[in-house]
Amino acid sequence: MALPQIHQDSLKTTFTGTSQSDNGTTVHSFRGIQYATIPARFERSQPIQKFNEAAVDATRYGPRCPQMKIDVRHLLRIPEDVEIPEEEEDEFKCLNLEITCPPLDQTKGPFPVLIWIHGGSQVVTFCSAASGICDPTKLVADSIKYQKPVVFVSINYRLNIFAFGDGKEKNLALKDQRLGIEWVRKNISSFGGDPNNITLAESKVQELGQPSLREATVPVLIQALGECNVNSMFLQEDSELQDWESRPEHVEELMIGDTEYESVIWRNGVETHDASTINAAFEQNSEWGPQLRKMYQVVPTRPTASKLGALDIINDALYAMPVEVISEKLQANQKTVYKYVVDQHNPWQLSSRSHHAVDLLFLFGTMDFSHNPGAEGVGQDMRRRWVSFVNGDAPWSEQKRYAYGPFGVCGEIDEGQFAGRRRTRHIRALREAGKEAFLPIVFALAAGKISLLN
Fold first, then answer.
1. Most confident among 57-71, 175-189, 219-233, 404-418 (mean pLDDT)
2. 356: Cβ contacts below 8 Å, ≥ 6 apart
3. Of 101, 143, 268, 447, which cross-links 150 as Cys (Cβ 3.0–4.6 Å)?
4. Containing domain of residue 384, as a range?
């Protein structure tokens, strides 16, 4: 069978891709397409306007940004005999993207586009298409079966110290992502995508003993990140981000939600706290600290309850509450918001609950769930509703929330049922207290305690 080819006039090249099949439905993939260049370490990336080659091999995944090695099977409870391929890394060739689309000779576009920005706390690439976990083949194939085809694009970008820089340029990861999105808008029509119908789905380093961060070798930088236990990075202050909270919303529709146990990635770290340390964290705010401590069952003589309470307030402050804040902000601006909860337990270890990132397993459906029909059913339902949303259809009633699980049961829930799944009273208290009151408590409990090896 001949490999799929697409000619792109503005880039002056022809891309040769690869073909995959899922249960008899064929999709085409174009991998490792470079969208920008990096002139030098910590420098702002520059968009690629055209290729020097008349033909580009897009059959292989491009390299990712250098990073610490993390076995994602730990957190996701993927069986140990499932092999995750090792991914190539390159500091200067990591700005590439992958496109998975319906065969243009079998379907007629343009189709809506879903751009996927991978997670990983801006430090690692968590579950890429190259890893096999977030391979979009099944998602795109299902969209064809549902007669609602979509084009899927995933973007690689700089991470960790290579994105954080040395102070001259800031937030390089965000700026790389912006160039990737701009590339999609300019060029996706050649791959059957509609550029006007896009859905977007998203420290401190020790002395290195070398002249500067710019001159240090890649292995030295990665070693330093590991030795310093740098496992997450925040956005830096930047004039381009100033007053972001009050800027007009450009999003017309939003689908947003969380898993039931997002704070699992702090579990092992919080276990190192004793009850007195956890209780002391709540003493940082004299007005709200005592009330929040009692609400979260943090008691000096109850170490187990205190550790669970610490995980709960981290979960609510950093995940559950932002869902409500962001939703209300958009709704106040007359935007359409669809809220959901993912409560289906890990398909291999039910005792791990519906934890952080488990929804990726259901959405992409790349793992064998034949032992767990409930998990398989949740994945099918999730893909169907994501595809509907990307196509501009309502995935469920805007007046309701949608629940994925538990026990393989999916459906709309009202606010009373939602209150049985999340700590709604606690979330209201956090919002009333304000971030000035609760963030110092959360940081005292969570700082330096996060790990993807929970």
1. 404-418
2. 75, 259, 261, 262, 263, 264, 265
3. 143
4. 248-454
* pLDDT score recorded for residue 210: 37
* Single-letter amino acid code for the residue at 253: E
Helix, strand, coil percentages for the chain (3-state, nearest 5):
35, 20, 45
Residue 172 parent element (H or E): helix 172-187
Structure-token match 């998990």, residue found: 375
Tell whether 252 and 236 lie within a shared domain: no
User: So what's the pLDDT on residue 240?
Assistant: 59
Helix (H, G, I), strand (E, B) or coil at 154: strand
The contacts of residue 350 (CB under 8 Å, 6+ apart) are none
Residues 6+ positions from 245 with CB-CB distance below 8 Å: none
Give whole-number Cα distances, 220 to 69, 144, 166, 217, 232, in Å. Answer: 14, 46, 15, 5, 18
Q: What is the DSSP letter of 237?
A: P
Please give the Cα distance from 446 to 338 (Å, whole number).
Answer: 30
Same domain assignment for residues 196 and 114: yes
Looking at residue 1, which CATH number applies to its domain? 3.40.50.1820
Please determine, for residue 243, whether its predicted confidence score (pLDDT) is greater than 80. Answer: no
> How much is the average pLDDT of 24-43?
95
Angstrom CA distances, 210 to 166, 225, 400, stand at 14, 15, 57
406 prior amide bond cis, ω within 30 = yes
pTM: 0.89
pLDDT at 218 over 90: no
Q: Is the pLDDT of residue 122 over 90?
A: no
